[in-house]
Amino acid sequence: MPFPENHYQGDYVSEIATAFREEHGDKWVDHDYESDAEPFLAFIKDRVLDSLKQTLEALGIRFDRWFSERSLHDAGRVEGVVKTLTDRNAVRTDDDGRVWFNSSEFGDDEDRVVVRDTGVPTYFAADIAYHDEKIERGYDLCINVWGADHHGYIARVKASLQALGYDPDRLEILLYQFVSLVENGAPVRMSTRGGVFETLDDLMAEVGRDATRFNFLMRKSDAQFEFDLGLAKSQSLDNPVYYVQYGHARICQVLAKAKEAGYTVPDAASADLSPLVLPEEIDLIRASLDYPWTLRAASMARAPHHLVNYLQDLIGKFHSYYTRYKHSEKVVSSDKAKTLARIFLCNCLRITLANSLALLGVTAPEKMYFSE
Questions:
Q1: Do residues 110 and 125 share a domain?
Q2: Using one digit for the tens of pLDDT, what is the confidence trace for 17-58?
Q3: What is the DSSP string of 38-104?
Q4: Residues 353 and 244 in one domain
Q5: Same structural domain for residues 355 and 290?
Q6: pLDDT digit string (tens) for 263-289?
Q7: Beta-bridge mates of residue 181
Q8: DSSP β-bridge partners for residue 142
Q9: Is-above-0.90 flag for pTM?
Q10: CB–CB of 266/342 below 8 Å?
Q11: Where is the domain boundary, 131, 161, 176?
């Protein structure tokens, strides 16, 4: 049977329907869906939620708590928050019986309906109740991650917190733009309603977890982003994640050669860095010293792309240094003083790269194929 034109299409719908049939057989064939959709909705919700959890787990994302909007209604929190707003004179009822939140008095551009004329709360009422509950958990700062198409909701949600007596600055919103996929220079056409799309599972299967995470973290969250599938799959220095991982592996191999030659990386207390006089070595030292400040700035701004940019710049400096001097001023040579100073520097770079990649949730391989 074909899908109705105004319904979502796609194999995933058929897969869920098939799974429901396999589990329940013909038990619900004659059930009146219009009067009671709960048996179907519960099955769909659980199956889709499990799928989301598995995908996020594969990408290295874990939520401590999953929150159900229904729990707000079941616990009476939605009605309770509307009553609180009523007690604080922050709502009014019009002639049609609709309850309006006077959000324009708290910085929003217009007032918002929180209870329909049917007596049913709006989605916004549930949003208010959720953030009220979220603040009550005791956090000093609550951070929400929203799609950029929800930009217009920021003012109204913050207005509701202020009306409830909270400091609206305790809520911070991070907006993320939609991601478009590009392959061979052409956009990958997608339509969720038409059932034509690439899932995150598909993307990870094609380019790997490291490339997926690194590419998503390369851009400012609210910037437009084209994910180049071909580039993400390539094992070349044009691939951003490969470029950084390759640098880490190259440094590890340099340190391994030093160990084979009988050298041990000196500790910070005994290291003599006076032989490091090449301009590129000084640049690498300065760049390494920038790491704590870069990390702090990225954290304060909720902007991991600052750390990604730093890594690309840092490893770029090392690649240039290594390539320029690999035949004249080698890291590992018969000059003990220079070698010890240089492997100390290399080890500092290795630690910085490894720690940064770990923070980004990306692996730091010690060996990768490359041709010197």
A1: yes
A2: 777 777 677 776 777 767 777 777 777 888 888 889 999 999
A3: HHHHHHHHHHHHHHHHHHHHHHT---S----HHHHHHTTHHHHHHHHHHHTT-EEE-TTS-EEE-GG
A4: yes
A5: yes
A6: 999 999 999 999 999 999 999 999 999
A7: 227
A8: 171
A9: no
A10: no
A11: 176
